[in-house]
Design a protein that fits this description.
alpha/beta; D-Maltodextrin-Binding Protein, domain 2; two-stranded antiparallel ribbon; 11 strands; 3 domains; 9-stranded mixed sheet
Length: 318
Amino acid sequence: MMAISIQMLEMFCAAVRSQSFSAVAKDRFVSQPHVSTQIRRLEQHCGFPLFVRSQPRIHLTEAGEVLYGYAQQVLHALAELEEAGRQFRTAEHGVVRVGAVDSAGNFVLPEVISKFNRRYPQVVVEVRIGNTTELAGWIEAGDIEIAVGPRPRNIPGLASDLLYREFLIVVRPAGMEVPEPVPVETLARLPKVIREEGSFSLSVMRNLVGGLPGGSQYVAQLRGSTAVNEAVAAGLGVALVPATTARPWLAAGAVRACTLAGDRALFNDFFLSWRSNGLAPLARAFTSYLQTVKEELKQRAGDRDLGRHATSTAYTAA
């Protein structure tokens, strides 16, 4: 039996996308009979037609739809294989795809990437910022190689390593008077600025005040900690934010940190996560570097003073 060739699959997938054998031939600078031959050989190997040949466009059969999904997976895997080989050949040139939650990607990783760049100047670290839910989806889909944030749940074949603990604090506008410490019941009644759906900060705020009078009422819902801190500085209301993200506004005196009554601490453990079926060499190098600077990250991100005297009260992402 004739084996399936890469060329057959490439021609097949190209024909599906363009819905025309002649368009494939034109794009690839080959004759239309050559394209037709490759498709026919693939159909002979499979034992069923892949296309309904009609004018002016061709369309997949039901069996062709199934084969198209597998063909895409094979070609994608081959592309990844070639990229891994290229990285081994070029040693220290290429791209590392990282996903990170807002606080890690915007306030912790830039300094780490700067130091990594001194060691690997030809490596580009692409950081994609998203919330906890988005991060899990990206790493499951293979859109990123490494994730930095709360450990994604219910994803098989995922390896994780604890990096640091991130504390959340309540911030208020500099001109807003609130009791100190702030009872949770009072916090629930204050005007609140919250993060977008899927964010860890929002899940903690809901756990904290959602069941109290006024706890489910908010004056604004914004994407990202920067926007939330700016809204608090503008006097819109109070907010729950990662301590690392509030530093610039606290230093400028635009916002103030509040102590919650009961001396409770709000925190989450941040992990370095990757698919356990293997990392490309450059992604492995970046992962190894992050693991060597964990103590530095703990000092930079796990600020116990800004976290308002950490105790044993922990909230984990929903």
